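User: Before I run my own analysis I want an independent prediction to cross-check against. Here's the chain; please return only the structure tokens and, at the end, one sentence I can use as a sanity check.
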Amino acid sequence: MMSKKLARRAPLTPQHTNTSGLATRLRFWGAGVLTVALLTGCGLRLETTVPQPIVPDANELSRQAMVNDFVLIQQDARSTLEAGTLDAAATATLTAVLDRNAQYEDLLGGVYSSGLPQDDSEFETAASSLSSSQSAAENHDGQAVIDRILASTGRLRTTLPLAQDPELARLESSMAIGNLLLANDLAAAGGLEFAPPQFLEEPIPESVLDLISVHNTTALIQNEDAAGYSLEVIAAMQEPDERATALQQAKVHRETAEFWATTAGISQTAQDPRTVAYALPFELTKDVPVASADELRRLAHGLTTELATGYVDLIALAAPESRMFYFDNAIRATFLDTAWGKPSGPLPYFSSSAQFLAATPEADSPDAVN
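Assistant: Structure tokens:
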């Protein structure tokens, strides 16, 4: 008789193997694998929700509306250039408009795309509702581009309070001013109509000095008054038939300084920072009693550039509902500045080191004012 050990090692023969249970298990296992494969091949994922596009916040809506404006300006500029109806000077200026707005679009991150298979039309519609009209250029003389820029400026102004990021509001304001300067150049080159927007006639918001420190307020008053004084000196040194611009601008700066002093409640008080005279950047002698025309122009350009830069800075510091008023003043200062020179770079009056301080206890200390 065989031992139990040898019996366990004996090979199984077909008649000893029960295959019915094994075959059933294999059939069920194969069907399960096939089902998972089919579901995977159809793009379905078990227990996975379908991704949804993000809901845009106020910053994103502001950014995308500005990008939409830049895209539309490019479309109008490209359409006009393709028509080939402009002379060389206007063509060069319009090409600069096209290139600058492509740069602005890129700086703001471009047109939104969720990257999802769903249509982004709902998001784009929300942002587009803030941007200017989508009618195309028809006359091909560049006027539609100028009108588009003016519409974009007005649209940005009304939505400046919406941005939650004050630096985004400051950046977009600088871009809008850059486009206004290009529109001014295009009008001059093509004999077209352009007038800088005039918004300052609207009521001044009560919150205009909210969040603006004492230091910033006194600096603003003094800067405007110093510009008025210096332009009066410039006018006195110019020929009689050249004085009109300097005298007119001096009057504007003096009046603006008085407005800020009155609004702050310090006009004609001990806190009023205005003085009788201000230092000039050149020395006059008996032999040279008058500065050169270039020196006078550099002085005026430097003063108005500083003012425009200051107003753009204050857009980021002011209460959101007051940003448009500082934007208005930045536009005013911009087109006073163009009488003496032009800002350099694609972001006019946008300084990486703001000349004004945030409203903090340190900013309002006597040391900060001095």
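Sanity check: Confidence is low (pLDDT under 50) at residues 1-17, 132-136, 365-370.
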